[in-house]
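Retro notes (design track)

What went well: tokenization of the new backbones is finally stable.
What didn't: we kept losing track of which sequence belonged to which structure.
Fix going forward: every design gets posted as structure first, then sequence, in one message. First example under the new rule, 293 residues:
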């Protein structure tokens, strides 16, 4: 069995994420397997959903001296997985995730992602920024990132979505982030991007749909505003929720104030939701999520 050489670095952490039917002995089997393979468990989180009889786990571990290679650890864990019916992934968080970002004209969410990426808070490689407008080209290209403009009309939408899929494939993109992209994706595209596309929207929805939701909310005198980061599905703005941010407002706030404060909620919710996804903290379960935050 291949093991780590004595002088190699074994300080790197890995993330094991697992889902299965709830039952006795799962935690013992997983932790025992890692211990038997000279792996040190740094963090272990679990959740037993009694309403669905499902079990969820996230374990952060690192290999120690004498531990098999990570490929061997993953391969041999399949025996444990088979015994309990576990669906699992083992992820190397040091490997940047290839992300394609989609925008329209608003720059606050994109700017927040770029800032956190440059600060090392989001371990991503942005393969391209795709937009249906040219407004943010200079901002993107200043960062040395590819900018692709795909104007969308009722007549060319299928062709532009096909071009988007080609960009995703040719760049090896692993995740798509809609950072205030103001076009509705078609149902076929949503299905193809299932589990690998994150969107941000006002948490007013579905209460205030359509144009100018903050102004609609202002007219109704709401006292809380916010934003929701969620996975994209064919049900518009109703995919599994990853993260939400809210902010209290008062009668003295104008519609313009609400738009300004809403931007803060949007960029924070999207950045946090993306980080949770990158760190394998999110497990999709039907129309909801388990988030080990």
């Amino acid at each position: 069995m291949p093991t780590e050489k004595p002088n190699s670095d074994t300080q790197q952490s890995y993330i094991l994420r697992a889902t299965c039917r709830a039952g006795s002995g799962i935690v013992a089997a997983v932790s025992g397997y890692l211990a038997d393979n000279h792996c040190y468990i740094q963090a272990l989180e679990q959740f037993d959903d009694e309403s669905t009889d499902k079990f969820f786990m996230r374990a952060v571990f690192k290999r120690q001296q004498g531990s098999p290679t990570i490929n061997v650890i993953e391969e041999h864990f399949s025996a444990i997985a088979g015994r309990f019916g576990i669906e699992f992934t083992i992820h190397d968080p040091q490997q940047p995730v290839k992300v394609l970002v989609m925008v329209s004209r608003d720059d606050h969410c994109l700017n927040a992602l770029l800032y956190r990426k440059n600060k090392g808070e989001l371990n991503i490689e942005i393969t391209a920024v795709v937009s249906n407008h040219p407004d943010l080209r200079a901002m993107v290209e200043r960062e040395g990132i590819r900018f692709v403009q795909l104007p969308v009309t009722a007549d060319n939408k299928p062709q532009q979505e096909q071009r988007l899929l080609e960009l995703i494939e040719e760049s090896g993109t692993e995740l798509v982030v809609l950072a205030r992209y103001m076009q509705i994706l078609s149902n076929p595209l949503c299905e193809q991007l299932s589990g690998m596309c994150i969107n941000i929207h006002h948490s007013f929805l579905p209460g205030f749909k359509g144009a100018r939701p903050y102004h609609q909310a202002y007219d109704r005198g709401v006292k809380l505003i916010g934003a929701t980061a969620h996975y994209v599905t064919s049900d518009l703005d109703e995919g599994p929720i990853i993260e939400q941010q809210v902010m209290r407002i008062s009668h003295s706030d104008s519609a313009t104030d609400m738009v300004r404060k809403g931007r803060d909620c949007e960029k924070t919710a999207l950045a946090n939701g993306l980080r949770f996804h990158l760190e394998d903290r999110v497990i999709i379960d039907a129309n909801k999520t388990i988030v080990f935050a």
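Added context from the reviewer: Helices lie at 26-36, 70-84, 108-118, 137-141, 157-171, 187-192, 213-220, 255-278.
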